[in-house]
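Task: sequence design from structure.
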């Protein structure tokens, strides 16, 4: 994760929001916690070092003071016995060194290194191991002594015993780990929410979303991305439901017509030639409509699964445009068909799919152009691309319907579609074919002024084509 601050602005509120990366916050938390522990350790060690230094200097001065007060005459020992070679304190009092040791909180040990005789003053019951001490050697040509001064105080760390100091440091580490873990868990809350939300999502309930109010780092972006993914899944699921519902509705009408005329035939068709002819004609017509609808549904289903085969080859698109124009003249006598087709326009594309798209645009113009109107087909070479155009003088498309004409099963208002049968799938297929060929389609229309579809296709196709974009909702 990048350690940087990201500034963003909430829409409408105008408030600036600072997003701090999770890695930065984690590093800051643990740096702060361990810095506090480090400061405590440094303070403890510094305090201990200072205390040790001061006490050591004090012991050195005490040892020097005692060494400087020696005299040759014998000094009575504290228990009343005499030592012929022991030192004698200046005031010649029996308790002077004892009082001196107690007053300075030290233990004094004087050893005659010649005889091995030891005289002690102060608290001799302490365990001198681990206590601060200093040793001073004093001697004359005939006698030698070793003076040992031991502090009665166990300085420890920061005035605490060593065990207590170590326990406090361990406790601080434990508290830091627990506190840091709680903060990290709080920052990771969106991940836990995401897990719970993912577990609670079912096909019947896609409305669950993650709360992103309390997060201000990468996890908020992750939660927003996850919510966006759920929005797209829900939208896709709703599209699928609408697709099934619309397909069922479109099939229900021709099935009802076929069923009605079949019943009519069963009752009176064998006795009335006119009823028989009308019923058979309608059944054939509605069967063709159903077959066309089913074929389009299968085409879109294969397109959604990326199993619709596209075979690219180089061919003369001029001939294809003329074929569509001639076929249209044969089946449509109600409109004037014009064609402006350039010679020898070649294109790398799927010949069958491109012809299907061109026919679908022409069929759309035939449906929505009143008898006597004009339909034109154009094919032009524009250097690196080919333009195919179908224009008509029909009823046109309103501004509110124009953005949706490529949506599946979308049908315009009643004024445009009155008396015309349409499944609302033809233009969806056209858009898929165009986009699968890395092309674009443009629609220009005004109500009552006609409609013009212009398809722009590259003349060459790259070996690896991107995944198609779904045409329609």
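Answer:
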């Amino acid at each position: 994760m990048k350690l940087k601050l990201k500034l963003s602005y909430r829409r409408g509120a105008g408030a600036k929001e600072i997003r701090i990366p999770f890695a930065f916050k984690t590093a800051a938390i643990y740096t702060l916690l361990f810095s506090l522990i480090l400061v405590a350790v440094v303070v403890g060690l510094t305090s201990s070092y200072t205390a040790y230094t001061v006490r050591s200097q004090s012991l050195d001065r005490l040892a020097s003071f005692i060494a400087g007060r020696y005299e040759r005459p014998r000094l009575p020992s504290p228990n009343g016995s005499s030592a012929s070679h022991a030192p004698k304190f200046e005031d010649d009092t029996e308790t002077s060194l004892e009082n001196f040791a107690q007053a300075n909180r030290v233990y004094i040990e004087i050893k005659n290194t010649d005889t091995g005789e030891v005289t002690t003053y102060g608290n001799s019951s302490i365990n001198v191991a681990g206590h601060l001490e200093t040793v001073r050697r004093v001697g004359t040509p005939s006698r030698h002594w070793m003076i040992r001064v031991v502090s009665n105080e166990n300085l420890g760390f920061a005035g605490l015993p060593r065990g207590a100091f170590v326990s406090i440091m361990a406790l601080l580490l434990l508290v830091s780990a627990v506190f840091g873990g709680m903060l990290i868990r709080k920052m990771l809350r969106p991940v836990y929410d995401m897990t719970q939300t993912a577990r609670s999502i079912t096909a019947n309930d896609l409305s669950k979303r993650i709360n992103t109010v309390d997060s201000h780092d990468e996890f908020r972006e992750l939660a927003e991305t996850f919510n966006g993914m759920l929005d797209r899944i829900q939208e896709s699921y709703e599209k699928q439901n609408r697709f099934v519902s619309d397909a069922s509705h479109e099939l229900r009408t021709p099935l009802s017509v076929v069923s009605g005329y079949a019943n009519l035939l069963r009752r009176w068709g064998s006795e009335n030639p006119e009823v028989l002819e009308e019923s058979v004609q309608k059944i054939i017509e509605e069967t063709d409509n159903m077959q066309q609808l089913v074929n389009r549904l299968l085409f879109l289903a294969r397109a959604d699964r990326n199993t619709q085969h596209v075979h690219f080859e180089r061919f003369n698109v001029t001939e294809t445009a003329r074929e569509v124009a001639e076929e249209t003249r044969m089946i449509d006598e109600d409109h004037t068909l014009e064609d402006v087709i350039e010679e020898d326009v070649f294109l790398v594309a799927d010949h069958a799919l491109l012809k299907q798209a061109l026919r679908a645009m022409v069929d759309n113009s035939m449906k929505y152009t009143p008898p006597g109107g004009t339909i034109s087909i154009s094919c032009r070479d524009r250097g690196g691309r080919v333009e195919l155009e179908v224009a008509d003088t029909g009823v046109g498309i309103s501004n509110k319907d124009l953005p949706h004409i490529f949506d599946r099963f979308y049908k315009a208002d009643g004024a445009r579609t009155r008396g015309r049968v349409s499944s609302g799938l033809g233009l969806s297929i056209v858009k898929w074919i165009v986009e699968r060929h890395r092309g674009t389609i443009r629609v220009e229309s005004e109500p009552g002024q006609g409609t013009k579809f212009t398809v722009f296709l590259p003349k060459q196709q790259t070996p690896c084509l991107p995944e198609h974009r779904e045409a329609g909702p």
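The radius of gyration is 50 Å.
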